[in-house]
Amino acid sequence: MKFGVRKPSLRKRLSARTSVKRQLVHRMGIKMPKGYGWIRNPKKYAYNKVYRRTTFDLFSLLKKLFK
């Protein structure tokens, strides 16, 4: 598990928004309501919950500083 600052990756940021899988799920209307990730994939949900609490994003840190 990682602690501290996350290393930003522009390539991963773009691919997450424009992936074929995301587009198919979005267009077919199979989206789940926000907060229901534990139903779809509980193991991934638990990992992400811990990861988000132990790391922070450089861009969100800059946004808070200059707000």
Automatic annotation (TrEMBL):
Question: Where does the source fall among the domains of life?
Answer: Bacteria
Q: What is this protein called?
A: Phage protein
Q: Which organism is it from?
A: Fervidibacillus halotolerans
